[in-house]
Each structure stands twice: as structure tokens, then as C-alpha cells.
Amino acid sequence: MAETIKPSSPAPASSSIANLPAANIEAMPAAENAEDGERGDEQSTEPDRKRGNARRGGRGQQGKRKDRGDRGDGDSSSKGDRSRRWNESKRRKVDDRGNRVAFNKDGERVKSYMSIPFSEEEIAAEERRPKRKVAVMIGYAGTGYKGMQIAHQEKTIEGELFAAFVAAGAVSKANASDPRKIALVRCARTDKGVHAAGNVISLKLIIEDPDIVQKINESLPEQIRVWGMERTNNSFSAYTACDSRWYEYLLPSYALLPPHPDSFLGRKVSDAAKENGVYDDMLKRWEDVKDFWTDVEENDIKPMLDNIDPELRKEVLSLLHAADEFRNIDTKEASGSADDEAKTEITPADSEKPSGEGESKKSSARREFTAAEIAARDVKAAYRTALRRYRITAVRLQQLQEALNQYVGTRNFHNYTVQKTHKDPSAKRHIKSFVVNPKPIQIRDTEWLSLKVHGQSFMMHQIRKMVAMACLVVRCGAPLDRITESYGPRNISIPKVPGSGLLLERPVFEAYNQKAKESFGREPISFEKYEAQIEEFKNRQIYPRMWEAEEKENAFHDFFRQIDNFRSDYFLWVTANGITGSRERKEKEENIPKELEAELGEDENPEEGDG
Questions:
Q1: Does residue 509 belong to any structural domain of this protein?
Q2: Are residues 416 and 317 in the same domain?
Q3: In the UniProt entry, which residues are flagged as the active site (predicted)?
Q4: Residue 485 φ then ψ, to 5°
């Protein structure tokens, strides 16, 4: 029996930043070196890299990239290093107080969300109180924010927290101009729109007030919470002390249904199974869902098609499984209702023209959908409704768990990220566990599965590509060794499932906690005492937002529809022809169809983290 969650309307984000003059001061963004993972785990400074990477599967000193040779100017450092140095040297300036400020390309000062101004008189009048090094445990729904990162010109989770710390008196007025003054370090960076049930930041706060946590929360929007804080030793860093991280991925159960038999991938899967003599084996793996598409066609689709003129019906059928243009599921805007879809404009307003003329042209250029397109749209909506009615079986859940088990251990995940080769030592990562909760969650009409992965560290897009691979293996009835083959030297193209389903569950500080009490006289950093609050927060603030993204944008439906109808051999490794049956890219830098870049994640800078 699925656990039913009643979505509630998310509370408005009454930003604490809005209550402070934070947007009126100019400051230079602190350096962001996030390179990794689903969350940009490998961020922070070079000393942090040296201290932490060897333990968490990073590159370390022995695994660093080989020198690519002198560029002719005596600089053989990486492109990313050169870019960061150039940006810093170009933009590093200070104001009269010695605080860094930034200028845009026109030489104008830019506003900051991470610097809160107070007059010299206000600072002088404030009582000096001692700061203590603490680990602050937080949770947030990332919708509407540019992530968990220091970004002076963007609305971020850290910006809200910093403003709340100042408003609650945990950060003095003298230190409100720059987060570096309180040694703020995050455990794991999250990117735009990504959620976290638990994350940790370390910094120096004024914590004399016994109600300090309550006061901080009163200054925060409802979608950001401080669970608690623990005193630490002075050298504690939330980034370097983190041993491992737990992530959760929320997946609609219909993602495990086989491709439609009339789709490009559906036909290729069946044809390859017959050619290789494994068709019966594939049907056995589909036993619990063998009648799904037949029933949908008979009960949902056929009655609609029967009411369409025979000539028009042919055109509608040709549109149903035509190859869709690939779109970046993570960044596309909400598609709106079916009625809105029919009113979509196909030409942008001419910004050079006066508003009246532009509006006139915009109106006259409104696209008129054909009768076949309107009918096909309605049929596609019926398919979406049928998919959301699906309820997973124990057999299919077990198949998914068996696929996830293939990731456990130390593996070479070079095919699960971008710009890494099989020979790159940093492509090897250790997964401690990857488990699907056998009890689905039901939100409105859709059933969702909770997948939780525990690993030392993760590369960019790694988790999302792992989930995509497991889904494709299950839904296409492929053998499990297809996953283990992906660790080999052959380069294959693995898409990434939508980022809207991913959240940081919690970081783990096992080594620090073991010596915290004995060596430092401090309490361990743990989320256990906040479990009830966190679960309630996820059900009220995070899960409903995930559902809203799916309901408005059809992110998962569009993702799998695009994969199923992409007429290319890039994804045919999932058929019975195996890895060799798909196109191999000889080099990761090889040009690929532009419409495919977003699904593979190769249209992004790996140094900027994941979205």
C-alpha cells in the first residue's frame, strides 16, 4: 500500500534578505571552486583538496591530471585554473573599508546578496561578543533559488541564511559585510532548484542566546530551516570533515514501464531480442507489465482515435511517436495546461520595435495548430494520464533493486559524468549502498519511488546517470551485466534523468564524530534527533514541489518520451545487441548532435556543479 501524501500549497518565500538592506551593497563574489558531483562536492580551496580527496575518491596528489604541456606562455596549468585566476585578477577590488567589490562589464558596481551594510556608528555601538565555531544543520527546498553557494549577485540559500544570522544577532554588524569574516564553509554545494533535507555548514557564530536557533528560523522563509547546531573544535571544516553523503532520488514508478512498442526504442529492443534469440527471456522480465500498453490502447486511445476522421487519423498516428526535439528538462519553463499549449506563439516579439507595433506583430504571428496536431496533443495527454495510473508490482521493484545493486563497491564511473576517461583515476568512486524503498509514496495520481544512495563522493551528473541506466535496463528488459559492462573502457552515451527528483538527504561525519567527545569534548554532528522534523518538512515543503514540477512541466514523461523516440544508435546499448550495438564515441570530446547535449549533460561546465 502506497503512503499517500496530501500536497499543501508551499508557503510563500518571505525572504529574510528582503528585510535587510542586503541588495544595496556592492561586493565581490567569494571564489567558488566547485568541481564535482551532483552537488559540486569537490569545492573549496586547494588545501582542502589535498586534505580530503584521497579519502573521498577524489583525484588527490597522485591522481591529478597529467601536465598537458606548455601553452607557449610558460603556463601549463589547467584551463579552469587559468580562468579562475583571470576572473579574480580582473574583478578583485576593495571598497573604503577593505571589503571586496565587483564591477560589471560596463564598470558599474554590482549589488550583493551576501553583504549587509551598517554604518560605522552602528558597528561601534554594538556590544562585542565572542564567536564560537559551530556546525549548523540545515534543510531547504531549493525551488526559486540559485543553489547552496555564495553568489553575491544571485538569490541563494546561503544568502538567506547569512541574512538570517545577522538579523538574529548570530553575526555581528562588523562581520555582516563579508561571509569570509565568519569562516563560512558548506559541506556540499547544491545547484539551482535542488533540495536538501539535511546539509551542514561550519562557521563562527555568536551563540550565547539559548533561543538563537528559533530566532534564526523566524527570519527565514518556511522553505529553509535550521535544525540545530553543535559546537566544534576551531579547526573543523564541514567540507573536509565529511566522510560520505546520502542522496535521495524521487522517481515516478511509471518510469520503469517498457517503451511503447511503436516507439523507435521499443521496436529496436524487440527486434534485437528476436535477432539474438533472447526474445522469450525479455518477455519473462516483462511478465508483470506485458498487458499494460495493450490495455491502454484498447481502453484509452482507441476510443479517441475512432472519433477522428480516417484521413486525419493517419496524420495523428504519424505524430504520436515522431521524434521530439530534445529539450533541456532541467531548465525549460513550465509548459502550462493543454489549452495554453494550443496558444503557443512561434515568433518572439521584436524588441527593437515600439511596444504597440511589437504587440501587433506578436498577435498576428500567433501559430495556428492544425486539427491533427490538436488531436495528437489530446491523445498524448491521455497517454500521460494512463502512465500516472500505473502502480508498481513487487516483481518490478525487485528488478530495480537488483539493478541498483550493481553499483555497490568501487567502480569506474567514467561513463556516468562528463569529460573523464576510463584511465582517469578520479573516475573511480565508492558506493556504499543504493536502495529503493519497497513502500511507494503516492502524491495525487502519481506513485513515486524513493531511491537512496550512500557514497563517499559523487561526480557531476553521476547519480542522475546511474538512475537513468538502472531505469533503462529494467524498462527494456536488458540483462544486469549491461551495467557492469559500462565500467569498461568503451565510451557509451548515458542520459541523465531530470534534476527535479534529486535531493541531498544528509552528509555523514563518522571519523569526526568518533573523536568529537573523547578528544574535543564536543557532541557528534548527527541528524537523528531531528528525524521527525525533517520527515515532516520533506512531506510539506520538498515532495509537493517535486510533484508540482512534474505536473506543470511533465519532466519525467518528456524525458523518457525523448529517449524512446530519438532516432539514433546512441542509446541502443540497452538492446540485446549489447554495448557494441551502440555508437561508440572514440573520444569524450567528439562532436555529438546538439539536441543530445542537454540529455547527456555535456552542454555544461563540469566546474560549475550540477543543476
A1: no
A2: no
A3: 191
A4: -65, -25
Candidates 36, 41, 178, 191; catalytic one:
191
536 domain-assigned: no
Start-to-end CA distance of the chain, whole Å, equals 33
Q: Would 91 be classed as within a structural domain?
A: yes
Same domain, 379 and 454: no
DSSP notation for 404-463: HHTT-EEEE-GGGSSS--TT-GGGEEEEEEEEE-SS-EEETTEEEEEEEEEES---TTHH
Residues tagged in the binding site annotation? 247
Q: Which three cell numbers stand for residue 107?
A: 564598470
3-state secondary structure of 559: helix
* Angstrom distances, CA of residue 194 to CA of 144, 207, 304, 492: 9, 29, 39, 27
Q: Are residues 354 and 476 in the same domain?
A: no
Grid cell, residue 83, equals 580562468
Asked if 403 and 424 count as a contact pair (C-beta separation under 8 A), the reply is no
Verify whether residue 295 is a known catalytic residue: no
Diameter of the chain by CA atoms?
A: 83
- Residue 607: the pLDDT is 42
Q: Is the pLDDT of residue 371 over 70?
A: yes
Nearest to 440 by CA among 68, 77, 4, 111: 4
Amino acid at 75: D
DSSP 3-state of 160: helix
Q: Outline where 65-224 has alpha helix (H).
A: 79-91, 120-125, 157-167, 212-218
- pLDDT confidence of 552, banded at 50, 70, 90? confident
Nearest to 377 by CA among 336, 332, 334: 336
Annotation: binding site for substrate: 247
Any domain includes 520: no
What pTM, to 2 d.p., does this model score?
0.73
**Alpha carbons 151 and 95: distance in angstroms, whole number:** 18
Dist CA 512 CA 200 (whole Å): 14
Would you state the pLDDT for residue 67? 43
Give, for 199, the enclosing helix (H) or strand (E): strand 195-205
